[in-house]
Amino acid sequence: MGPFGEDPPAMRSGEIVDGRFELESKAGTGGMGTIWRARDLATQETVALKVLRDPDHGVDRFLAEARILARLEHPTIVRHVGHGVTSAGEPYLVMEWLAGEDLATRLSRGPLEIDASLALVRRVAEALGAAHARGVVHRDIKPSNIFLVERRFDRIKLLDFGIARLSSGDVLTRPSSVLGTPGYMAPEQARGDEVVGPRADVFSLGCVLFECLAGRPAFQGSHPMALLAKLLLEEPPELAIVRPDVSAPVSSLCARMLSKIPAQRPADGAALAAELASIPVTTSSSSPSVRSIPASRLSDSERRLLSIVAIAAGGRSSLDEVRRVAEPLGASVDALAGGTVLMVMRGAGNATDQAARAARAALTIHAASTARVIGLVTGRSDLADRLPVGELVELVAFLLDRARKNGRSGVIVDDVTRSLLDPRFEIEEQAGHAWLVREHARGDEIRTLLGNPSPFVGRERELRGLVELLEQEFDEQRAQAVLVTGPAGMGKSRLRQELLTELGRRVPDLGLAVGRADVMRSGAAFSVIASALRMLMQIEVGERRELQQQKVSAAVGALLSAEAAEGTAPFLGELVGAAFPDERNPRLRSARENAHLMAERIEAAWVEFMRAASRARPTLLVLEDLHWGDVSSVKLVDTALRELRDEPFAVVAFARPEIHDMFPRLWAERAQEVRLGPLPRRAATALVRSALGDDASEAFVVALVDRSEGNAFYLEELVRAVTEGRSGVLPETVLGMVEARLAALPSDVRHFLRAASVFGEVFWPNGVRRLLGGRRPVNVDAALDEAVAREIVTRRSSRRFVGEEEYAFRHALLREGAYAMLTERDRVLGHGLAGGWLERVGEPDPAVLAMHFERGGKGSRAAHWHARAAQTAMRGNDLQAGLRAVERGLAAGPADEVATDLWALRARIASASGDYEASLAAAEEALRRTTPGSIAHYIALEGAIGGAMLLGRHETLHDLSRRVLATEPAPNALSALARALAPLIAALAGSGDGDAFVFLEKLRAIMAATMDVEPSRAGALAYASAMVEKNLGRNPWLAREHALDAVRYLEQGGERHVVPVAAAMLVGVCTELGAFEEAESWLERTAARPSSMAAHVAAAYSGQLRLAQGRFEEAITISGAVADRAHGKDGNVVSAIGRLTLIEAHVERGAVAEAETLIDATSSREYPFVAAACAWFRARLLLARGRAAQAVTVARDALNLHWRIGPRGLERVLLTLAEALMAAGETQAARRALRDACDELDAREAAIGDPVYRRHFLTRVPANVRIRRLGREWS
């Protein structure tokens, strides 16, 4: 036959199979065969004929399905028509033809109604009951094997008995192979049990029921191994949680169907059908509603650190080996179908300890069979009664796949585990993955940070003290013990390394023995001393016993006489596990028969050996991790300190503070203790700087140091996270360490802290009560008292809410650790409940409420508060924060009204930020949604007007102005209308459009009608008035007064994002008045409160300021930059101002050619004032070239253009005309033009209300100075 999945060459449409079935067309594939639509010539009915695709494989199972179907008759089981073998020797099976769709196809469109789901499952249960009664277990119940005839739920057919178990008990597949579909098979199938009964089908049907109602599978995973593991280890969520309208009886039945323990499920299909029949039928006409979380209370579950060791298939013997390793660690072990074994280590103790235990377990298992592939991962998962493993199983399955593809055996580890392991664990990189190779005995390797040895900082004083003490005791030949204690991560290992390095330099003949306690052998007699002696004698685990004995004898013989060595070596051999033969050694033999005698002789041998070693040279015994040590070793050390008190013998032990609980009064009166506290801030800062360099800001470094809580390990991991782009996320390695502290607390206290962490670093007991209320509330007062006593939280003297006591976590790390222990369900539920509580007590910060509702899955409420947060941010001129709030609000799924507000805000923010295209687009979207005359309508118009103005979209601007005139504002929308009119008036005035006066009068009428001096409206009016007076009037002093009012009112009204624009205008107004110092001051204030629009406007006016001051080069640089910033094809008003200033600067400095080039490149169609200014520039250039007659003509044209747009700058044009006329010999006309210029100047001067400003106006502005001088000269 052809390749797998292709039809056998002999099969063709029209062919008659076995003289009875005529093939019509191929319908597809299913189970193990190719399916044909055929006609039964005996009955003329349409049938489905399935032919085995590969006769060399699966024949037994194919024929078994045929035999099973032949003996099963039930209306819900697909009907058997016949079976046999084709003429080509291929087995075939004929069944009734079905039209419709399978359940999997239907579920792809969403969940089912409750009644439809129960009816469907009941019919399948009845069919299974009939099969079970005949001794048949289906073993592959899943949605694709349940067919909806004509897509009806009351016409069900159960398909595909291809892996059903026969009543004879025949096993059709080899043991441990996977039979069934991962995600639907029962746990006993996932384990590969050989005996699988009817309850397995009940479990699978429970998976189907869950999916019908929940709209998602009960067990999900991207990898088959992960699915099998979840079937064994995870519990699906309660059905009532994901589908709240499901009744309690249905939820309870589904939970029992999905029990991991077969005996807790209904016995078979018939029993299940009977239970389903007893559940009352409900009527539901609405569409099924599936939600994730009910609004109730936080659960007792928590997320904790897990480590998983996965051993790829190695037969049943590997399961026993893994259990032997797992038993002392308290780990659970499960075997999956296919032979993979999982060892799950629950978080207990420190995260680094757990990773080390898991790593040693993996190495131990691998040592028993080096051909195996083992995966090791560490991470966080939800913990309840069982051990759900979630994404961790997916990760370890991925790692095993990677290892197989690389063709390498060994232990492959994930990044989190690798980070938690200390340097004594050797890691090898290959193909982008980390492989655990071995664990070194001494652990001399220095921990690296970003590829370099981590700097030794903050422990110099302790190091100096230890070195001096030990040197002194060695010199004076006195025994001494030092105990160095400190919490995990405080730098004990690094201090030990530096101590041994320094002593090795100062005491060259130092004898050194290093013993290390191990959690896997914690409490085992003599384990610590044994490891020290093995290191000293260079004995390796796994060596031949004879070789080990030789090494013991050699080490002892080098220090003792032959006779003494002969009596000492055998008992040291007992210590190190190198048992000597006792046939010729009665002392050894008698000791082995008497435990008390053995202990005495081991102690004597130990003391004798250590005395000889100390007399030969100063000897140092270093004991690591003694908090995992054993009493026997501690007693041996105590004896040695007593017996060798006059020898150069020293002991330095390193341990965590809990050693005092393990060994009270350790070596009392014989030891000094050195307690390692948090790293000093200076040292911690130096560590960060050594890694990140000087580029990191001081504030950022301080934040990292504060967050580390003085813990060197935390700090290094935080630095590593920053360099990997994870600065906003606390590293899993640090969370795991914090978790160890929290895990030691009682469960109710942990429950309380998890709830408190939802609020942030600060929380309120009554708020926590809201999250913890329900059927079994936590005693909040007792839990709070315990948390205070344990120094986890502290009471605050200040209060945010009236009548609400306030507490805070003592450190951000503690809060983050508690928060990380929340399950995803509790995290979402908690934030929703916290948001509601804070809303009720009057939380004033909308961003806080928005965050809680967003994280709580309450999108519409989150969007409402995001909109409020955006408004608050804009009042504070924090445009970036405002934009983030708007975008998050839009993403949250807002209600229509809120969405409109958000789009309008988006337009305002984009305009203020200088993104005018986005402003215009957002404003149009908002206008499409708004009601004309509403607040949102005018906010949207404001954004659109600003965008159109600064993009130079004149037609759009006039269209928007018509919209403003066409709408009648709602009573509550007057402020919004005022804010929209202000930029419109400014745009019209800035472009020289006289319609600005029409809209200014409309704005004044609004203010007069309301008799309301609301600051925002007053500020808008003042700003508009200033723009009109500046650009269309002849009174710069009045423009200044209006602009000052605008700044004052806008600040009072909280419109801080607009204030910089008004302040920027004052730069231009004061420049026209000659008040250069004041202009500089406003320029500085604008820079201090930046916004993109204000910065652009201020830059344009600063160019004019530099020009007026005669600083032409600076004016050219600044104005050139402004001119280049054009946002539309026609440019914009501000860019046009910059271009005109640039031209004038070239004119003033006599750069005629450059000025002419710029004038030629400037479109006079942009704005009327541009055409007028360019005409004036041309007249000046013609005059400079000595072409007076042409200059007169062009100057008169410029004068006419200026009269059309208002009197601003008229005196300058009249001055140029006067000079041109004088040069052309028209003296009288020149004098008349100059008199007009003087009159215009006098009118402006007379309006200035301050003599100092009048003087500056006449003596500092270049054109005014020239007019006055020529007036005197020509008179």
Automatic annotation (TrEMBL):
User: Which UniProt keywords are given for this protein, alphabetically ordered?
Assistant: ATP-binding, Kinase, Nucleotide-binding, Transferase
GO MF entries: ATP binding; protein serine/threonine kinase activity
List the SUPFAM superfamilies hit by this protein, alphabetically: P-loop containing nucleoside triphosphate hydrolases, Protein kinase-like (PK-like), TPR-like
Protein kinase domain span: 21-277
From the UniProt record, list the coiled-coil ranges: none
Q: Write the signal peptide boundaries.
A: none
Q: Which PANTHER family match?
A: MITOGEN-ACTIVATED PROTEIN KINASE KINASE KINASE 20-RELATED (PTHR43289), SERINE_THREONINE-PROTEIN KINASE NEKL-3 (PTHR43289:SF6)
Query: What's this protein's name?
Result: Protein kinase
Q: Which organism is it from?
A: Polyangium spumosum
